[in-house]
Amino acid sequence: METRAGSWKTVTACGNLPSDVQRTDSASLASRAPGQPCQERPPGVLLFNPLAEGYIARGKAFAPVKHQMLLAEDLANLPQFLGEQGDIVLVTKRPSSGFLQNLGQAGFPLPEFVELRNGRIDPGSGLGRRQFRGLRPWAWGPDSLRLLEPLFDRVLGERRLADWYYNDDIAELYSKAWSAGFLRKVLARCRAESAARDIPGHTATGRWLCSEDEVGRVVDTFNDALEAIAAIRSRGHHRVVVKAAHGLAGQNAIRLWEPALLPAQRRWLARALSDGRKLVVEPWLERALDFSVQLEMEPHGLKLRGCTGLVNDRKGQFQANWAEPDYRRRLPARVGALLGQAPDAGWGLDWLYHEIFSALESELRRARFFGPIGIDAMVYRTPEGSCRLKPVVEINPRYTMGRLTLEDRKSTRLNSSHRIR
Question: In terms of C-beta density within 10 A (0-12 exposed, 13-18 middle, 19 or more buried), how is residue 91 classed?
């Protein structure tokens, strides 16, 4: 049974976990060597390409630095935790048999690994003669489009053109500027609709939901950036963070703590705005809890996959994910606890996320996007000490470590918590 994202109440309600959440029987893995083909049904093809947003932002001018390339190579086998037994994972180098044997004994499904040649599909691999259930890169972007294009006509049940996998509208979904605009529209829609309908809890939402002042402002000139920084500080937020519209894992951002902008910070702003690029300027919020909502856009609609907690460092950069035993049914328990159980807050969260999912599904249909998508969110503390919810920090139209945590969670005991660092 799948959970419809359009109805958050199906998540918060109590009930049994779906039957597909179970530990894989490791005995079934012993019949074939680790990493070798499974012939039971057509496989999916998975690829780890964590630098996609760099290529989206800079195109052919993007030149990954050494540590980025090494990280991508070291973690190339990560998609094996997103697929099913017999799926194909494209890698630069096949993991060792001992490593795979240990994973199989631990109950993880084992994929087939196919090595790339010079970053491309090797014609001698035989992939061009096989059929596939689907193509699932970590992210659809210029890099994955180019690498996987030779397999487009080998996918069963669909004949999608290249721009159905990746196009300008999908590229826009990766932008933090787009996420900020989306949140601003959702907040305006929620407040207008609740006021027009005199919905119970409307007054209460003002005590636990962020306002438009906490949403990032998008700028594309140096003077607009200075004006946005000054406006935020005039409202009492001295600390400000400025983010490039496209960034990699919390990089391409600058935190402004000093009373006045330093020369180096001014140079960073000018350089980041060059070539028509955009920045998002927003107040630095004191995090109480980071979490994410993981979804999948399918042809018939947006589906909820579950919720995870996030561990970020003091700079807001990712460190780990965790999932509670009832991750498929509800937000992390601390979300409600931190919001103080305001009157009608539980009902208000249901309604808020219904509005978010409805608006997001419309945007994804417009962009012809299908695949995994994650919403990062946070509960933060105001200067007065109360907690509020920022339901969209950014939206990631790709696989995330949160989604990987949920998929990996299927291979652990149902009544345990789970953490991936």
Answer: buried
Cα dist from 72 to 76, 116, 196, 199, 289, whole Å: 6, 14, 50, 48, 28
Give the number of other CB atoms < 10 A from CB of residue 209.
21
Exposed, middle or buried, 53 (CB in 10 Å: 0-12/13-18/19+)?
buried
Cβ atoms of residues 288 and 387 within 8 Å? yes
Which amino acid is it at 247? G
φ, ψ of residue 223 to 5 degrees: the values are -65, -40
In whole angstroms, give the CA distance from residue 240 to residue 283: 5
In angstroms, the CA 242 to CA 253 distance is 6
Q: What is the CA radius of gyration of the chain?
A: 22
Identify the residue whose tokens are 């691999």.
Answer: 125
Q: Which of 216, 213, 384 is nearest to 286 (CA)?
A: 384
Amino acid of residue 152: F
pLDDT in tens, the chain (421 residues): 344 454 444 333 322 322 332 333 333 333 345 555 555 689 999 999 999 999 998 888 888 889 889 989 999 999 999 988 889 999 999 999 999 899 888 888 889 999 999 999 999 999 999 999 999 999 999 999 999 999 999 999 776 778 889 999 999 999 999 999 999 999 998 888 766 665 544 444 567 899 999 999 999 999 999 999 999 999 989 999 999 998 765 568 999 999 999 999 999 999 999 888 999 999 999 999 999 999 999 999 999 999 999 887 776 677 788 888 777 778 888 898 898 754 445 567 888 899 999 999 999 999 999 999 999 999 999 988 999 999 999 999 999 999 998 888 776 655 555 656 5
- Neighbour tally for 405: CB within 10 Å: 24
This prediction's pTM = 0.86
What count of other Cβ atoms lies within 10 Å of the Cβ of residue 127?
18
